[in-house]
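re: that chain from earlier
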Amino acid sequence: MARSFLGQIMTTSPCAMCQGHGTIIEHPCTECSGDGRVRTRRTISVEVPAGVESGARLRMPGAGEVGPGAGPAGDLHVEFRIKPHERFTRRGDDLLCAVQVPMTAAALGTVLTIDTFDGPRDVTIRPGTQPGHTEVLKGLGVTRLYHHARGDLKVFVDVEMPAKLDERQRQLLAELAALRGEERVEGRVSAGTGVFSRLKEKIGL
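^ sequence. v structure.
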């Protein structure tokens, strides 16, 4: 009971001796000091569901700290942080990666073998493939959370242009340009909205 300018105020608090348990331990445990619990470390196995994303949380009932006085244990909440992969980028349920091919392979076509999470897979580069073209490998992406379906693996083709040419290579390219009527090329300027929109879509802007 205390007095204030508002009048008498009554407050309640747990007993300083028994902390509200109703009993007093005359000879408390030296390890837990009568609290019924000790702080320690333990290893817990967590089953990570397929398709989980960064920021997702998993609740594990009864895996938290034990309550005072040997009370029931609380819950453990696990928050996931996904480590970036060195080759693949995730976008939703899809995986993205890029492959570099020489200019000649893009022009003539070829078949590449890439390592996926499902083992080696062939990627067909069709003749005349343009830089930024996307090949889609169905069902090789990320498993949808709590589903059996999977996203796709999207492979972006990066055409590598030769930086240095020897004399013979230069002659061959000059002959090819002559055959195609491309000795003199005039740049055609356009608004390019379609090109820019496709580029933004590919790089995720």
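The beta strands are 2-4, 7-9, 57-60, 76-79, 89-91, 94-102, 110-116, 119-125, 134-137, 153-160.
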